[in-house]
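Kindly review these tokens for lecture notes.

. . .
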Amino acid sequence: MKILVASHTYIVDLNCEKLRALAHLESDIEVTVIVPKRWRPGGVQNKLIETKAWSDGNFRVVPISNFSQNNQGLLTFGSDLMTLLKQFRPQIIQAEQGSKSFAYAELITLNRFLGLKAKNIFFTWWNLPYQSKFPVSVLENYNLSNTDGLIAGNQDAADILRDRGYQKAFTVMPQLGVDEQLFSPRQQPELATQLGIKPDEFVVGFVGRFVPEKGVLTLIKALSGLKNLTWKVLLLGRGTLKKTILEEANKAGIQDRLILVESVPHDEVARYINLMNVLVLPSETTYQFKTLTAAGWKEQFGHVLIEAMACQVPVIGSDSGEIPNVIDHAGLIFREGNAEDLQKCLQQLIEKPEFSRQLGQKGYERGIEKYTNKALAKQQLNFYKELSR
């Protein structure tokens, strides 16, 4: 089976691990990933990246000339895409730029023009109801009407497209898996000493952006009601709320229990997660459902959850977006924005070590079974085989 995947996501080598695993599942699988030759992650103010070709057996990344260097919806590719398609002749064509992307429309059109007869698939994270107006509606209708399969990053994304008339095959799975070699249970005594964490202290952890929608202030409020217990809170990330977090911790009288660490490289994050006795993802939805606009946000997946699970660290998440589906019965869920609910969850784990250990084991088993790169690669391959029958 020859598979072609197009996305700016894969300019980062680490993000390619699921697709590289896919290429190694069976001897007759070939995976070609096309990425924009030039890209500015995060916007025009950031550094332009010149991507490089690389390969590993039946897996390869091929930079293709592109138009638009920072907008995934407007991204399109140059004439060298046609040359590659003629040579590779894929049986699966997958664009990971959403249902309204020009790149997906371009691939659909070239698939038909070149007579490839490949299955057209797209991936989307978009989990908020929306309205498409002309001319975007024409583009989306063209893409959806020529789609053979949808991979949705969360259940809401699948439900929204079903409500918009999409009736063909779909599967729900995240775009990226977890590296179980990097994220695994490991003691970190030196790092604990460096951060001033004592062996008897229960460490409540948070990894993410310090912004309102990530709910970190709700976490601080919940912890302020547990001052009679022995714990510290480790916040790993950065963002506009840093000053407010410090101020709120000071007001609550827990500033001496707060450890704030910024700018940790991704390959170092596992060391910090392994210091935690629980990881909390207290995300809070900002989307206003009554207005039916795309403004706002709710949690699309919560990748840090599966990283913590792989480290055998128990997880607590709010009920925002996809979080309950990711955790299922392998962790605790509280009502988003409800500090009292979160406080009760934390108290359970702090006061019941055996329950905490069992929850960590459940999360570990779920993470390894469902969310490693190899597990996701198998799910994706099974979906391709279903479409090809």
Notes: The chain has a mean pLDDT of 95.
